[in-house]
């Protein structure tokens, strides 16, 4: 009878035989799935944020998908075009030649001088006026490399190509008035005189007292404080901020009546008569017009108007600031401070006047006669 072999098996070996082979786990642990989901969400958020903060490309006038060209334009040295409109007497017969710089969210058709100057004053004094679309507005090409100096150089080149002579006058309203500061800084040798009509103020200009600037800044509506703050500290976010619908927009972009003074409301019928050309103002894109304007106006400047020197040391010309004391857009306290610290500026403060005092009957006649030194 055969007998079997008696083997001794250790406990460890027995356990090894009874243990099942491990299979690779095809599913991640809950913590791993959470991490992967968060990464995907974060990447998705970044892609979304990039898209919503990136402005769409401009619709260039004259391009296949862009608006048509309806006004004369000059071609600048860098290849851009600047659209303009002439008013008054023919420039060859003019004694005084004025370049008008329009305000925020406006265009060359918003020339308050041409609209409001008395025809008798224009003819008797021989006044020629040219208004133009600032870059990105109306029919002027956007300037992707726009700087404080570049807009002044554009104005100089406009004068040269139109043959306005070695010297000319500049008049700017609101943000157009702020552009006149750039002319006084970068092309003072080309100016015969300058008038700044309620020029916009940058709350971060060096030289403004912090307490005075902060007080004026906080007098704005909260939504406008934020819009200015974004333009100054995060200009790359300006497009999103002023197109989103979560928070109130910048009051001027939204055309809010809450920023109008008593006088402004009375003048409103004169201001809102813009239906025939209003669509042209932002036709190349909101970013290239109003949003880029905000970034330039409230961004970081490489100089301060408070540091400017008198461009007319021998009184061969003059610089004037006109300001209403009831202006709810431009703080009169800061305007006074600037004028007090620039003794060569002739400051005119109008009692009870708001932002749109230039539309008061006879006001532009007074402004231009003062600028030209005539009665």
Automatic annotation (TrEMBL):
Residues 1-29 are annotated as: Disordered. Transmembrane segments: none annotated. It comes from the Eukaryota. Residues 113-358 form the AB hydrolase-1 domain. Pfam families: Abhydrolase_1. This is AB hydrolase-1 domain-containing protein. It comes from Clitoria ternatea (Butterfly pea). The lineage of its organism: Eukaryota, Viridiplantae, Streptophyta, Embryophyta, Tracheophyta.
């Amino acid at each position: 009878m055969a007998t079997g072999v008696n083997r001794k098996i250790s406990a460890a070996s027995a356990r090894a035989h009874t243990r099942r082979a491990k299979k690779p786990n095809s599913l991640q642990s809950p913590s791993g799935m959470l991490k992967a989901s968060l990464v995907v969400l974060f990447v998705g958020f970044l892609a979304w944020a990039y898209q919503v903060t990136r402005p769409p490309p401009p619709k260039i006038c004259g391009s296949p998908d862009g608006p048509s060209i309806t006004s004369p334009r000059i071609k600048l040295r860098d290849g851009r075009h600047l659209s303009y409109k002439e008013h008054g007497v023919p420039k060859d017969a003019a004694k005084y030649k004025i370049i008008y710089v329009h305000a925020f969210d406006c265009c060359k058709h918003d020339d308050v001088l041409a609209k409001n100057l008395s025809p008798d004053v224009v003819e008797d004094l021989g006044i020629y006026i040219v208004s133009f679309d600032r870059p990105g507005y109306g029919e002027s090409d956007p300037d992707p490399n726009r700087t404080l100096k570049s807009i002044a150089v554009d104005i100089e080149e406009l004068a040269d190509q139109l043959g306005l002579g070695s010297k000319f006058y500049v008049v700017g309203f609101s943000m157009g008035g702020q552009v006149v500061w750039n002319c006084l800084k970068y092309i003072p040798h080309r100016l015969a005189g300058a008038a700044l009509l309620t020029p916009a103020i940058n709350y971060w200009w060096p030289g403004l007292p912090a307490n005075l600037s902060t007080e004026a800044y906080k007098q704005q509506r909260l939504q406008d404080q934020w819009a200015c703050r974004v333009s100054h500290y995060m200009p790359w976010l300006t497009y999103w901020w002023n197109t989103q619908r979560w928070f109130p927009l910048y009051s001027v972009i939204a055309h809010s009546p809450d920023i109008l003074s008593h006088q402004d409301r009375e003048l409103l019928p004169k201001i809102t008569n813009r239906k025939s050309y209003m669509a042209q103002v932002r036709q190349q894109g909101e970013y290239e017009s109003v949003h880029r304007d905000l970034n330039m106006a409230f961004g970081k400047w490489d100089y301060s108007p408070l540091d400017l020197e008198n461009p007319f040391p021998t009184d061969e010309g003059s610089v004037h600031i006109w300001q209403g004391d009831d202006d709810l857009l431009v703080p009169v306290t800061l305007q006074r401070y600037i004028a007090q610290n620039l003794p060569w500026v002739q400051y005119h403060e109008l009692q009870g006047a708001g932002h749109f005092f230039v539309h008061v009957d006879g006001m532009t006649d007074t402004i231009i006669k003062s600028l030209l030194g005539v009665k």
